[in-house]
Amino acid sequence: MTISAETQSTPNYQAILDQIWSEVAPRLGEGKVASYIPQLATVPLAQFGMAVYTLDGRLFTTGQAQTRFSAQSVTKLFALALAYTREGDAIWQRLGKEPSGTAFNSLVQLEYERGKPRNPFINAGALVITDILASRFVDSEIAVLQFIRQLCGSTTPDFDLKVAQSELQTAHRNYAIAHLIKDFGNLHNTVSAVVRSYCRQCSITLNCEELAKAAAFLANHGTVPWNNQQILDHSSAKRISAVMLTCGTYDAAGEFAYRVGLPAKSGVGGGIVAVIPGEAAVAVWSPGLDASHNSALGTYALARLTDLTWHSIF
Ligand code: GLU
Fold first, then answer.
1. Which of 46, 90, 108, 126 has a Cα at 20 to 30 A from 239?
2. Which residue of 73, 174, 181, 201 sits with most ligand 1 atoms within 8 Å of its CB, as the best mutation to test the pocket?
3. Across residues 1-27, what is the average pLDDT?
């Protein structure tokens, strides 16, 4: 069935996901898997899954929505939200909330901005968030994993220690970033402990169904929709979503907002999680990345979703 946008005042999510799948299937294999983490280079390229979790508890899926993938930087969203529940606006004394305009793993800005990372979604900022969590929890990565499990109501999200080890062995840039931050006095724990926890956190695997459900509290103004647990107040949820919109999709947040029009966080494993405020959370995964490190087909699928449903923030 062909969906026309005019019919979507109450979206038929399943028909729309089916249509997206029919458009994506012939394009499977586009993009490139991340290869700088050797273990991620082994992931077969031609894969795609998508899930929409609505705030009234309906789950719609297409493709490999139950296949687990490496969340990587998508975990930075949950680490930020967890740190924010504990420290609130105090975190902004140690990092900013502006787009960086530089690569996610760049050191350049950090030097002339004296160890204060631009935002929590570039690696420098995520390392500071890990440090904040490491001062509060025995193992910050376990705290992030437990938080994700709590949000999605599933115990299957877990670490992939092979991926964590693979990243740790090649984490020269992240060590360099952490050392620079430490030199400026903005890291309170040891560099090795912070980088190790960060790599383990990035190795968390989960599937699209779990990821969409885990992010639904942000679409629901800070409250988990399926058990009514308040994680953040509505103002804080708005703020986290705003940082997603401006900084969540690497150095292409402008292009992503232009095409998709939703707050989102992506990762080099090919996952993207997006929030439709007041309506749903969406997760998509396809390991082939475009030049900006966002999933190529994942971005396409989200752009089609917002065009066909009329549900974007614009
Ligand atoms: N663990 C990855 C790194 O630090 C995460 C990168 C990403 O997904 O953006 O390089």
1. 108
2. 73
3. 82
**283 domain residue, yes or no:** yes
Ligand 1: residues within 6 Å at CB? 72-73, 104-105, 123, 167, 174, 202, 267-268
Lowest mean pLDDT across 59-68, 97-106, 236-245: 97-106
Separation in Å, CA 309 to CA 71, 151, 188, 222: 26, 25, 46, 23
Cα(122) to ligand 1 centroid in Å equals 9
Q: Which atom of ligand 1 is nearest to 199's Cα?
A: 1
Which ligand 1 atom lies nearest to the CA of residue 268?
8
* Ligand 1 probe mutation, 141, 166, 167, 198, most atoms within 8 A of CB: 167
Range of the domain at 132: 5-309
264, β-bridge pairs = 274
**Residue/partner pairs of 149-155 with CB below 8 Å, 24 or more apart:** 151/78, 151/213, 151/214, 151/215, 151/216, 151/217, 151/224, 151/231, 152/206, 152/210, 152/211, 152/213, 152/214, 153/213, 153/226, 153/227, 154/210, 154/213
Closest to 80 (Cα-Cα) out of 71, 88, 70: 88
Q: Return the CATH number at 287.
A: 3.40.710.10
Rounded Cα gap, residues 221 and 278, in angstroms: 7
The answer, yes or no, to whether residue 226 has pLDDT greater than 60, is: yes
Q: Report the number of distinct structural domains present in the chain.
A: 1
Taking Cα atoms as reference points, which of 174, 165, 162, 176 lies closest to residue 76?
Answer: 174
Residue 68 confidence class, pLDDT cut points 50, 70, 90: very high
Q: Is residue 173 part of a domain?
A: yes
pTM attached to this predicted model: 0.96
Question: What residue owns the CA closest to ligand 1's atom 2?
Answer: 72
In a domain, 314, yes or no: no
